[in-house]
Amino acid sequence: MKLGILLLSTTPPERLAELAALCEELGFDEVWLAEDYFFYGGFTAAASVLAATSHVRVGLGIMSCVARHPAAAAMEIASLDRAFPGRFLPGVGHGVPAWVRQMGLTPKSPMRALTEAVTGIRTALTSHEPFTVEGEYFTFRDVVLFHPPATEVPLYLGVIGAKGCELAGRIADGNVLSVLAPTEYVSWARSLGEKGMRDAGRSGTFALPTYVLTSVDPDRDRARAAVRESLAFYLQAVGPTPLTGSIGINDTVSELIDAGGYQALLDGMPEDWVDVLAVSGTPDEAADRIRAYWAAGADSVILSPQPPDGTEAQLRLIAAEVLPRLGR
């Protein structure tokens, strides 16, 4: 059962190495990065964080499958694995539709494009001979990496719907779950991923790193107020999804968005949404909620700090007050 930290895309690139080193020093297992367009670059950020740390695993969740050719993505992945063996965890997904549209890269069949990208990346990482594939979206002609990876690199998807969750089990080694995933959704996504593995005749374990909006404070109300603002922002941005559908609140989410968007969500959000969509409150409450995510099937709980007093202060507070309660 792992515990990690997500360094948000709003983090200035020049601070990533410093914060990642602090995460490692404080005892977290993983540091995750988000390639949100157009903030910091995912592979550049990962290289910076890997170089600043010695043993934490560094995840990239997620890069859009259409933003780079899969052969170029495989080259970047292999290079990082050669330099930092066994520590890089790349994730691939569709990408936020609005950002993909900005680049004029929206595929007619997103699932087909994602499948071709991930299978192409895996083939490039594992093939020692040139291979040729003529796909609907991506073409490989006599592609072979001069510097193949030093280890077997796990590939994660970052998908939400039922078909995507099953696809993750068929072609990937795990699924990076977005913020707003309650424990009910985590269990559902795990069952679908494992079904996909069985249907594809694959063996092994299926990883489920799960991002969770987090705010911890001895003052319970202060912590919950901080995370409540983030919940309203994300709920307004993504609307009803299978994440919130898993706990039956999609109709209410739609009604609040229609009634006034962010402000209506902030003012009208039931208190129990904070309980089920975040890790929030006192250190004891935070530790209990993390345990609940582990029990639901999240092998890595990736905390996304939404602190009232700055990221570094929140990291130190979680390390000092929550990690000991988890026996770490």
Overview of the molecule:
The protein is an alpha/beta fold and 328 residues long. The protein has a single domain (2-219, 278-326), classed as Luciferase-like domain (TIM Barrel, Alpha-Beta Barrel). 50% of the residues lie in helices and 17% in strands. It is built from 13 helices and 11 strands. The strands form 2 sheets. A 9-stranded parallel beta sheet has the order 8-7-4-3-2-1-11-9-10. Strands 5-6 form a two-stranded antiparallel sheet. Strand 1, helix 1 and strand 2 (30-33) form a beta-alpha-beta unit. Helix 8 crosses helix 10. The radius of gyration is 19 Å and the shape is globular.
Query: What's the total number of strands?
Result: 11
Sketch the topology as an H/E string, one letter per element.
Answer: EHEHEHEHHEEEHEHEHHHHEHEH
User: Are there runs of 5+ residues with pLDDT below 50, and where?
Assistant: none
What would CATH call the homologous superfamily? Luciferase-like domain
Task: Identify the overall geometry.
Answer: globular
Q: What would you call the structural class?
A: alpha/beta
Strand order of the largest sheet: 8-7-4-3-2-1-11-9-10
How many domains, in number, for the residues?
1
Main pleated sheet: 9 strands, parallel
**At CATH's second level, what is the architecture?**
Alpha-Beta Barrel
Q: Could you estimate the helical fraction of the residues in percent?
A: 40-55%
> What proportion of the residues form beta strands (DSSP E)?
15-25%
First and last CA, distance: 11 Å
Rg is 19 Å
CATH class: Alpha Beta
**Helical segment tally?**
13
CATH topology: TIM Barrel
User: Average pLDDT value?
Assistant: 97
